[in-house]
Write a structure and sequence with these properties.
A hairpin with a 4-residue loop joins β6 and β7. With 164 residues, this protein is of the alpha+beta class. 22% of the residues are buried. Strands 3, 6, 7, 8, 9, 10 and 11 form a seven-stranded mixed β-sheet that branches. The chain has a two-stranded antiparallel sheet with strand order 1-2. A two-stranded antiparallel ribbon has the order 4-5. It is built from two helices and eleven strands, in the order αβββββββαββββ. It has one domain: STM4215-like (2-Layer Sandwich), CATH 3.30.2000. The two termini are 36 Å apart.
């Protein structure tokens, strides 16, 4: 439950960080739009009820906030988050730039204010940004991964009974 709340709150924060971008889109009837921000996985949309499966595409640009894993250690409970920025551009030479710019805006915004919902703390030294070598033209992706410290569950068991 805590991980779900974390992803939801990160999604809300990232929405405020990217709302002013106007980027090329693959959505019919629109030239540019702000990235949609979703949690978990990006769903695909059909242009018509009889659309060819090859024509079913996700609406871009988009930002996906995804839980990767949790490490509940003795000293801290750390969640690894991946943010995937996907943009659309038919410019073969510069298409990657929009994806990287959105990623940088997200990273800077989260590092400036690393406390989420007064209970989660982003580890501002854990950020990694990556653009894969292979890009599915005309879609461009950049990945950001980082750690978030979340509240640790405390045992209610009275360990003192073993040490009497």
């Amino acid at each position: 439950m805590v991980n779900v709340v974390l992803v939801k709150k990160l999604k809300e924060r990232i929405e405020t960080l990217v709302k002013d971008f106007l980027l090329p889109t693959n959505v019919d009837g629109h030239d540019h739009k702000a990235p949609q921000v979703v949690s978990g996985f990006l769903s695909e949309s059909k242009q018509s009820p009889v659309a060819d499966p090859q024509e079913i595409k996700a609406e871009l640009p988009a930002v996906v906030v995804r839980f990767l894993r949790e490490n509940d250690g003795r000293q801290a409970n750390i969640v690894k988050i991946r943010v995937i920025v996907i943009t659309y551009s038919e410019d073969e030479q510069n298409g990657w730039i929009d994806s990287l710019n959105v990623s940088n805006r997200i990273k800077i915004g989260l590092k400036r204010d690393p406390i989420i919902d007064d209970r989660f703390q982003i580890d501002d030294e854990s950020f990694e940004t990556e653009q894969p070598d292979e890009q599915p033209f005309p879609e461009w992706a950049t990945y950001i991964t980082f750690d978030v410290l979340i509240p640790q569950v405390q045992s209610e068991f009275d360990w003192g009974v073993f040490y009497k």
